[in-house]
Design goal:
Low-confidence stretches: none
Largest sheet: 2 strands, antiparallel
Radius of gyration: 17 Å
Distance between the termini: 15 Å
Strand content: 5-15%
Order of helices and strands: HEEHH
Mean pLDDT: 77
Shape: elongated
Length: about 70
């Protein structure tokens, strides 16, 4: 279970970073700030961030002694 959560954390944060770099350096940014290409880049960044945070929370939960004891039952 911890491996799945860790993969979700890495994948989510990688998705966020990839999309942010794409928006920041891919022509969607000008001297005045954002030059929006639409809502999708922001939605994808938020989904990636959410998946990453969910994965981090899951890894921390499954590392807890309380949850390891429940899993042993």
């Amino acid at each position: 279970m911890r491996v799945a959560y860790a993969m979700a954390a890495v994948g989510g944060f990688a998705l966020f970073v990839w999309q942010f770099v794409e928006v920041r350096f891919g022509g969607a940014w000008n001297e005045q700030g954002w030059l929006w290409r639409g809502l999708w880049p922001v939605v994808v960044m938020l989904i990636g961030l959410g998946a990453g945070l969910l994965g981090v929370g899951g890894v921390r939960r499954w590392n807890s002694v309380k949850w390891q004891a429940r899993g042993a039952r």
